[in-house]
Amino acid sequence: MPNYQSPLAHEEVFTIRTYEIDSRKHATPVALVRLMQEAAMQNVLRLGLSVWDLEPHGISWVLMRLTLRIERLPRLGEQIRVSTCPTGFEKVFTHRDYRVFDAAGMLIATSSSTWLLMDTQTRRMTRIPDFIMKYQQQVPPPDQWLPRAPEKLPAPEAADRSKSRTVEWYDLDFNKHLNNTLYIQWLLETLDDDILEYGNLRALDILFRAEGRRADTLRTEHQRIASDTFVHRLTNADTQKELAAMRTVWSIDEA
Asked: What is d(CA 115, CA 65) in angstroms, rounded to the nearest whole number?
């Protein structure tokens, strides 16, 4: 898979640390997503498009859709290289891809994502301004883009298992809403222990629909729809509003 042919591309090297691993000494899927987003943050800081650069304009980036494909998760102490690049700017959406390589240069994970701009006063989606749209001229060619997520995700028809929890102060990000990686973590944590302990997450697709705010009580639930596939949903327990939908695909190790 070629490197991005774009001046917008960026790479970061990380070493997997002890607080990023599970009981098998592998990085958790959530830790991997956080490292991808850290690489993206360094990218937009360099481009002058970070949340702090956009703050005077009253706008901020919000993740709307994320797909993740995993060949394997890196182990404790392993060095990985995250390559990321914006791959398209539309009227209200921007796309960003990630590729994760091990020290030998083998591709171990990929992710495509779609972001929107939120008006920080109204908390609503807003049009991407011209000073950002101009970067469309520098995105890599389409043959270097990862596949973008399909529009719809199935929702659980009946919950196999559910949990409720309250959004606390340290669950919030710089936009003062529930950190997007915690959506993923909380949805995964409803799964049974045998999946979490012996399962290998191979694919994840999540659609973010609404904000989780301080003191909200949120309900997570999942349903197994195939031997290796689960659908997940996050809702506000009081209003029943859906905040996110997710699908995961797993392979299972022998216990």
From this structure: 7
- Cβ atoms of residues 78 and 16 within 8 Å: yes
Q: d(Cα 187, Cα 148) in Å, to the nearest integer?
A: 22
Q: Count of alpha carbons within 13 Å of 124, Cβ hemisphere only?
A: 3
pLDDT in tens, 167-176: 999 999 999 9
d(CA 166, CA 214): 8
What lies within 8 Å, CB to CB, of 173 at 6+ separation is: 179, 180
pLDDT, tens only, 127-183: 999 999 999 999 999 999 999 887 788 888 889 999 999 999 999 999 999 999 999
pTM of the entire predicted model? 0.95
Residue 221 near residue 159 (C-beta atoms within 8 A):
yes
Phi then psi dihedrals of residue 5, to 5 deg: -95, 75
What string of DSSP letters covers 133-179? HGGGGGSPPGGGSPPPPPS-----SS-SEEEEEE--GGGB-TTSSB-
Give me the residue label for tokens 């301004």.
129
For the chain, first and last CA: distance in Å? 34
